[in-house]
Amino acid sequence: MNTLPIVLACSLVVPAYQQVLPDLNCPKGSFRDNRTNSFQICTPAPEDINSIQVYACNTTHDAKYICKEGFFNADGAGQLVCQRCRSCEDLGLSVAKNCSAEQDAVCCSDEIVSEASSETAPTTAASSQNSTTFQNRTSSVDTIVTDKQTTNTAVTGLTCGRNTRLDTETNSCKQCDLCSYVDHDLHSQQTCDPCSEGTNYSNLVYCPKKCFIEEPSVAKVVISILLGTLSPFLCIPIAILIIPLINKSYKCHQ
Q: pTM to 2 decimals?
């Protein structure tokens, strides 16, 4: 029996299955996690164009990626989401803390900086485990700057920074979810805008490509698993159907 048609048929069926759910293919490479004493899949390169690799994955450790200069990771310890650093100069403020790969810049007004150096000025600077807060009190306005966002507390309300929304119940600024954003500094917007095609890039924010990828449905996953299980058995009947056609075509050309 001529096995060439069977090989040709299988070569058509298997790639078709692999194309249904490419995300199910395991990424190449692994490393040994000493904490769990097990092999783990290497972290793939992030899709963020503003990220750089510190070192590659090998048998002893995972790969490490950080945001390049001028950007910081807005998602903390989670997925790398590089956002452009806040420009204090563009906001008319002074730099209290420079932007790094892990956090945004901290800005404060020149008035706060000058008064903070004076022992008699009505200005306080409080430090905590996670942030440093500069506060300047006047008769009608309080200006507060933290290393998470710049906020102005005035008689009229609170002003938040990029990628945060105003929570009126707690009178505080809340971080936007991963697939949503606010493309403004110093605003009072109460909801974050969802990431969508055509509006996911700006000077301040960046929406990851994964926000636009539709998650596979249960039906699609089930069908793909069935195709993967049955594809070797489907090769034979397909080959049986193709062989007569190939033989007929071959005889016609003799």
A: 0.39
